[in-house]
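Limitations
The structure tokens in this dataset are predictions for the assembled complex, not deposited experimental models. Users should treat interface geometry with appropriate caution, especially where small molecules or nucleic acid strands are included. An illustrative entry is reproduced here so readers can see what is and is not provided.
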Amino acid sequence: MDKRIEGFSKLTKAEKINWIAQTHFKNPDKAKSILASYWNVNSELQNKHDEFIENTLTNFYMPLGVAPNFKINGAIYTIPMVIEESSVVAAASNAAKFWQSRGGFKAEVLDTLKVGQVHFLFNGDSSLLHSFFEKNKQELIEATNAFSKNMKRRGGGIQSITLNDKSSLIPNYFQLHLHFKTADAMGANFINSCLESIASKLKELARQKHKDLNEGKLEVVMSILSNYVPECLVRASVQCPITEFIPEKGWTGEAFAQKMIQAVEIAHKEPYRAVTHNKGIMNGIDAVVVATGNDFRAIEAGVHAYASKNGSYTSLSNAFIKNDVFHMELVLPLALGTVGGLTKLHPLVQWNMELLGNPDTKTLMKIIAVAGLAQNFAALKSLVTSGIQRGHMKMHLLNILNQMEASQNQKKIAFEYFKNHTVSVKAVGAFLKKNSL
Ligand code: MEV
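Predicted assembly:
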């Protein structure tokens, strides 16, 4: 069967599904009914989701869970998390509970600058380009007036523009590097619109004032925001006296604190460990980023670049003891928005935002950084005490039981039995055979 097709996007949804089912599946009717079983009965809601992207066939569910009892700067939050990995929500909840009775989490926004660049080539005298830029800088900024008026009223807009000579990287390569503030919007559209206007103006001015550039030729390559935002930073932290830092019976606070510090130090020095350490942090970050309708790919790209800012990949979090008090903190870039994008379009995003008390963007940055720190704390706490598998296996057991279509009764007795037995697919299979209730 020919798997190529022309004009797929012009077909109706039903025609697309028919073609896909007939072309790619052994049992087309079954393939179609699986897609249909995920449609929402509310056709208005379904249409909304259909229109988020092109060629929508159905919905792909992810669980939305909540982690309660997060004390952040004195206020209590229940945090929504969208994630498929078992044990992430449980770990967040455990960390929230642990720190709630030890002063809670503190968080502060360090800065909110976002970045955009116009990349261009100039094959002339760079000192002439610099003076041309200084002379015309204001006019370049004014080219964005149509978009920035509103943003300025909301406290945002262009904060700075510089000309960077990058010709040591690529011959004739220069860039305009801009800083923006975008108030409560993530601001991608605003930034990109500003950059494109500036790029047009730059070309126009270069054409008009070519004598100033001594006929040097200027050619714009592209204009786009950067997802590397090392000046859009938030810090989350926890602290408690070592005497109260007891993870479970049999541990002293001192021993636990030392183990935690060693674990963080390994992630600071060793990239293989740092990547997994930061992945644990992103378990918490991404889950809330998705739940609040933000762009998790942008966040991931920016965070990992930030983790390598000094030339090698390292831990985003830090832990230390000062005056017999254990401290743990996380600093990371989070370019988020609470208006625009999906925030008004997706009913569950709105629901999650209301659950969080409709935070402004700075507050959301703090909440999300705390979710990352909580996740990191919970992962390290398991790793340096019982090991990660105890908690994971509990959730894993449920997944295996569901895969094997265990009844509610079988699940109940399996949970009891596997409290004292090792979980594996084989062991669960054998258990279910013996207990076929
Ligand atoms: C698993 O999703 C995340 C962890 O591997 C994080 C870590 O090792 O710190 C548990």
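Some entries come with short summary sentences. For this one: The beta strands are 64-72, 75-82, 106-109, 114-122, 157-165, 173-181, 218-226, 233-241, 317-322, 325-333.
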